[in-house]
Structure formats: structure tokens, C-alpha cells
Amino acid sequence: MENEKETVISVRNLNVKFLSHGKKVHVIRDVSLDVYKGETLAIVGESGSGKSVFTKTFTGMLDANGYIDGGSVIIDGVDVSKFKKSKEWYGIRGKKIATIFQDPMTSLNPLLSIGYQISEVLRIHHGLSKKEAKEEAIKLLERVKIPNARKRYDDYPFQYSGGMRQRVVIAIALACRPEILICDEPTTALDVTVQTQILDLIKELQQEYNWTIIFITHDLGVVAKVADRIAVMYGGQIVEVGTAEDVFYRPAHPYTWALLSSLPQLGSKEEPLLYIKGNPPTFGDEIIGDAFAPRNEYAMRIDYILDPPMTKISDTHSAKTWLLDKNAPKVKKPSIIRNLRERMEIAAKELQKELGDYYE
Amino acid sequence: MSFYLVTYTILFLVVALIVFIELVAHQVIFKTGRMQRIFGHPLLRYSLRRIGSALISVLLAIIVTFFLIRATVDIDQLCLTTQFSTAFQKLPPAVVEARCDIFREQMGFNGGPFEQLMNFLYDIMPIPKTLCQSTNLLVDGVYYNSVQDCRFFLFDLGQIYSETVADLTHGPVYVIDYIGEKMMVSFPVGILAAVVQIVLGYPLGMLMAKRKDGVVDKIGKAYIISIDAIPGVAYYYIWMSIFVALFALPARYDVNNFLSWLPPVLTIGLTGMAGIALWVRRYMIDEFNSDYVKFARAKGLTEGRITRIHVFRNAIVPLVRTIPSAILGALLGSFYIERIYQINGIGDMLINANNAHDFFAVQGIVIVTALISIVSYLLGDIVTAIADPRISFTE
User: Fold this and answer.
1) Residue A65 · residue A273 · CB < 8 Å
2) Hey, are the CB atoms on B300 and A107 less than 8 Å from each other?
3) Which residues from B are below 8 Å from A111, CB to CB?
4) Taking the domains of chain B in order of start, what are their residue ranges?
5) Looking at domain B178-387, which CATH architecture does it have?
6) Is there a contact between A110 and B292 if contact means CB atoms under 8 Å apart?
7) Cα–Cα 20 to 30 A to A279, which of A154, A195, A286, B327?
8) What is the pTM of this model?
9) How far is it, in rounded angstroms, from Cα A243 to Cα B13?
10) Where does chain A have alpha helices with state H?
11) Is the ipTM, as predicted for this complex, more than 0.90?
């Protein structure tokens, strides 16, 4: 099945380092990943796991002190990790890959009208005239369900609410007509009901335009709603990757277990809420062996010495843990993981009931 | 007579325009359509209100100046020192008294304080009036009023009585005329200096921000810090010695010799440029780090476009308010620079008037300065409001 899919982004052994106060900090450590056409790939992980930095390498938007130190990012047969000048990126940014950022409140230029900020893209990327661009922009605003789009074309961002601004940001992404959309925590800054609307809108547009979506989030609820495939990141590495089914129902990495166990929605009222003890590694710490080992209750001695290899579990599913080694002892997964499907069903029912109450 | 007609017509039109704008703004007339869009625009009404409150501020400043001057000037002493050539003690007291009565009236010191204030306000209000002044004529050690000089005034700020301020041998010199004349001396140098500051300062700040920590930024920072660290008077003289000693430019300003314009213009321009570049750089770096610039980059805009349309435009919003005051401030010149390069402008006049205790001249300059700074603030606010859509004109 995997072979039939067309790969749009192919990352191999990517390393990203940052220069901070004269010290080199290794932020992305030897990551490989394929993104397939038309899929929704969710990249999950805690703050600081490197998920944003990782996707920034696709569009060359690393901060000024960050640089790629080995590895390749191949988009359309071109290794973009070798790009040096901002000019080289113009064919990718906006044209091929559009990005939606976390905070719609600050993503728009406060001093330019909404209309200008959309039509600007249309004029530059697609060579429309001012008038054509305006008509097209109004259509896009209507497409993302801005009421009174024609009238609100000349309004400024401060006259829009947070949810509306994120719709405008999506309209701008639409105006780019990209193949790939990177959503960098697009709903984190929004309240729950607006979150759902925005996610629905993104899904709807994905079907219409056949987008490939890379979704960066730390919200597993959002992941469950949108993702076809999930990559779990920890300490600058992808520790587990697989289809949503694989990762949610057959998780193989102790970090994924811990993440899922600590979801409040899946806990029952009788048990205390679980959390992952300790702190994620801060960049600058030298990591020997498995980055998760100090917080891992299943850690073995080898975890502190050697970095585990990425082990294939099935065609779609791999995890980076010594537990999958043939010499590893069999371990019992945490209880929540063992009956995850039932718990999820209960949680879904409860959520539906709550939402029902909310809408009544 | 025609002066009166013209002035009253203009005053009437101004009042009519204000009433008209208020009526349109309240939608009494022209409820919709083009007239409503133009004359009902909140910016117009906002400006009117601001002008109204600004005029009140000017009036208060003028009244304060009026009392301060009355508190510090001894009119009788002033009469004795200015109206009699030498030995006024030898004259009969009645003659001295009679002469000083006339002088008092001429200077607006007759009557009680309230009456004086009212007369003064009448003089400076934009009400058309004909005022007569007399020239002093020296006869036997006493100045007599001889030639009557009547003329039309819209504003009257009194006349200059000290010979060190103005040449009084060809008839009376009115403060309002004299300030106008001096402004025309200060303005060309001032406005050129303002243009040099802006034309050099903004691009320098922009370049420094764009390549932060690059070569231009490093040189620029060194320049800004040195301008900041050296006291003003010191670097004015440093500039002067550079221009005069190194480039052999004239050290004395002469309106007909363009080369002699360069030292004062460049001294102000190159100094003021540092401050502008500092702020442009700072605000632009702030904007470069903002999320919407990252999003603009993600939209696929070129770096040049991002810098021009997104970053520069946003960065200068806090700075545009200084542009009207830079331009209008050029009317007043720079006191230091006018002293150093011997430009006989407003700065020079103020120093002379102050030394000679010519209070009408001082008062006149204070009033004009207050007016100019209040108008520049008003224009600065309006320009900022136009540049930033988040500022609303309605309350």
C-alpha cells in the first residue's frame, strides 16, 4: 500500500543545529520521514520536542541562528536543505507549501486591510490585476465562511475576532493554491467551539483541493480528529510513526504510552490522572542513548548507553525503542493502553453528551 | 476697507464651514451619499475639535506669558531707559511723566490688569483692526512721538523698541512682521536640514535593521552612540571644524553663497539623522521579529516586498508624528546653529531680545513657538491616525 503512494516530501537523516551563545545545540537529531500526497500527517510532541523546527526546514524558515547540518529534505526532486539564498525559496514558499501559524491574532499585519493581505498573494503568485484579485479574494473570504465578505473586504484585522482571523489566514493559504499545507498548532489559541469549526473547515478544504496537510500539535484530541498518520517526536527525534490506528491502538514506544495514558479524557474517575514524570531534555543537554530513558519506567540499561534503532513493526508502523529488540524482555503495557479502544469509546460518548448539552 | 471685507468674509466662511461639518456629521443634512462621505468623515470633525482645543491651549499659553512678562518688567524703569537719551533727571518731572504716560499706553500698560489683558487679547485675536503707532523722534534728549503710522492688523503682537533687536531708524518695526522676516531667514536652512535628516536617517535605519549586526549596522551604531555620547555644543563645533578646516567651507552663513549653506545644514542634518536612524532601526527590528512577517514570508512574498510594504510601513507609524514638528520647527531654526554660523534668524532674534529686555519681541516669539508646537502636535496626531487604522476618530 505504501508503495502506491506518491511521496511529496522526503526527509532523510536530517540534522538541525542552533548556534546559541557560541554553543552548537543539536535540535533535530537524524530524523527521516516521508510525507505522502493527500494525507494528513500529524506531528505530535511536547513543547521543545523540535516539531516546529522540523517543519520549518521544509520552507526554509529556521530562525537566523539555526542551520541544517547534514541530511536532506527532498521536495519535488530538489534537495531544499542545500538552499542558501532566500530567492531560492520563492518557488516553494507560498507556491508549493503554505503555512498557517498558531496565533491568528498576530499572523496578520495590523495596519493593512484584510482584503489587501489576501489580494497581495493573488497578484504576486498568480499575476491577477487589482480588480480581479479583489473579486477572487472576496470569493475566498466567502469560501472560508466570512459573513458579508464583500463588505468586510476593506476591514482591518482588529475588526475581526480570533476565529475569523484564522479563517482569513486560511483564505490566504487558499489564495496561495499550495499542494502542501503546514498547520503549526492552528487551533491552540482558539477556544474549543471555534477550534472545531476551524478543523472542520480545514478538512473540508483538504477534500476540495486535495491538499497534503502536515499538522503540528500537542493536542491529541485534535490529532484524533484529523490525522491519517501520526509521527510522535521526542527530544528532536521521531520516536514512533504510523497510521492513526497504529499509534492510538497499537502504540509501541513507552513515550507514546505515557502520552496516551496522561490524556485526561481517557482516565476514569476512580484512578488518579497520570502524568509523565520529570522534564523533557533541554537543548544543550548532551543526550546519550535514548532521550526518553530518564523518564521511562521501562528503561533498560542499554537505553542509557545506545540510541535505539528505528524498528519496523509493520509496513506502516515503526518505533524507535529497544523494547522491540529481539533480546528485550516482554513488558506489560500500562492498563489504559491495554483497553484503549473501550476507553476511547466511552470518552467519545461522554464528549458527545457534553457537546449535546452545550448546543442545547 | 477691502482688508476688512476680505478678512470678515474669510472669518465668516470658516465659521460657516465648521457649522456645516457639524451638521453633516450629526446627519442633519446630507444623510447619505458623497457629501456625507467627504464632509461627514470622522477625520474632519476630529481635526476641528483638535484645532478648537489647541486654540484654547494657545490662548492659555499666551495669557501665562502675558502675566509672566508683566511680573518681570518694570515699565517705569523701562520708560526711563528707553525713552530718554541720557540725563532725564534734568528734565521737569511733568515732562517725564507725560512722556511715560504715552509710552505706557503704547506698550499696553494703561488701566488695570484686567483691562490690559482685554486690550492685549483684542490685539492678538484674529479680528481685523487698524492700529496706529508712532515713531520716536529724538529732540533735546527726549524721544517724541512724531510720525503716525497706521496700518491694518489681523494679529498684533506689539512693536519692537530696542535698537539692538531691530533697526528702528526707518520707522516702527512690528513684532509680527519682524518674526515673519526672521522666520524666512531661519526656514531655508531649517527645512533643508530637516530634509537631510529624514532622507539620510530613514534609509540608514532601514539598512541597519535589514542587515542587523552587519557592517552598515556596526558603523551606524558606532556613529549613533558617538553622537549620543558627546554633548550637543561639542559636536556642533566638531562638525564646524570638520567642514571649515577640512573642506574649506565658509564658516559664516551667507544667503547668497550656497557653499556657506552646507555647514549649518549638514551640522543639523547629520546630527539629527542619528536619532532618526536609531528609532527606525529599533522599530524595524521589532517588526521583523513579529509573527505577521513570518506569515508574510510563508505566503511567499519576497524579502524586498516584506521590508518595504510590511516592515517599514509598520515601523514608521510611531515615527511619522515627528515629521510635522520637524518641518514646522524649521521655521524657528536652531538657536545654537544660528549663533555658531551667524544666521540672523529667530534664534538670533530671541537671544538679542532677551538681552535687551524687549518684552514684546520675547512675548511674540513665545506665542509663535507655542502656536507652532501645538499645530505640529495636532498634525502629528492626524498623520499617525491616518497611518494607523486602529486609531479611531470617534469617541
Assistant:
1) no
2) no
3) 313-314, 317, 387-390
4) 74-156, 178-387
5) Orthogonal Bundle (1.10)
6) yes
7) A195
8) 0.79
9) 78
10) 51-59, 86-89, 104-107, 114-126, 130-143, 149-152, 162-176, 192-209, 220-226, 244-249, 254-261, 335-338, 340-359
11) no
